[in-house]
Amino acid sequence: FSADEERKAWLQHILSGILNILQKKQGLDDADNYYEFCRLLSRIKPNYQLSELVSSESYVQWVELSAHFTVESFINWRATSVSHFFLLALWSRLISSQPYLKGDKPSRLEAYVPQVTQAFIRSRLELAQAVVQDPNCVADQLENQDILINQLESIPVLARSSYEQIGPFILSLMSPIVQEFQKGTALQQMNETIVQKFTILESQLAWLGFIMGSIV
Fold first, then answer.
1. Which of 15, 112, 140, 206 has its CB 3.0 to 4.6 Å from that of 58, i.e. a possible disulfide?
2. pTM given for the model
3. What is the per-residue pLDDT across 90-104, written as a single tens digit (0 to 9) for each?
């Protein structure tokens, strides 16, 4: 760009287009479009500073709708899992820039990053259950080191930015799982249903263990 005004105008043009898609869900029912849209979202921050983003007239609405879109994506993880890397990258890049934000315009990230992080963690527990109950239809991402590493790269940045919320949240998920697991160890007899339940609990604990290990 030859001038800052052109750069700002281009950013506004991009954000307006993204908002239009988010509001109308235009084309997002197509898997390829969905993937490329998430990829586009992940490229916003590397090309613009957070201070430039928050100064855009569309930023407030963009960050709100992007957060809602991300949470919905994690909730519907069966159909959107291949795009999660891009969404995690988006939010980790945004929150990483928070300490360097200058000016009096707030980023509002503190309102949305905890929601995004919690939604992703919940989706891992649901994935752990689905892998056991429907192994032919759901791939176990714990068995794919590349995918696991890619996803866990962003979690420390997100979780540490709102540790007062994410720490207790993880413990609230882990405590009942541990209690159920301990009850099961006292059983004298096992049947297929109990074994399946144990396997689910083990997988869920593994996910929480990996997540907590990445944060520490």
1. 15
2. 0.92
3. 999 999 999 989 888
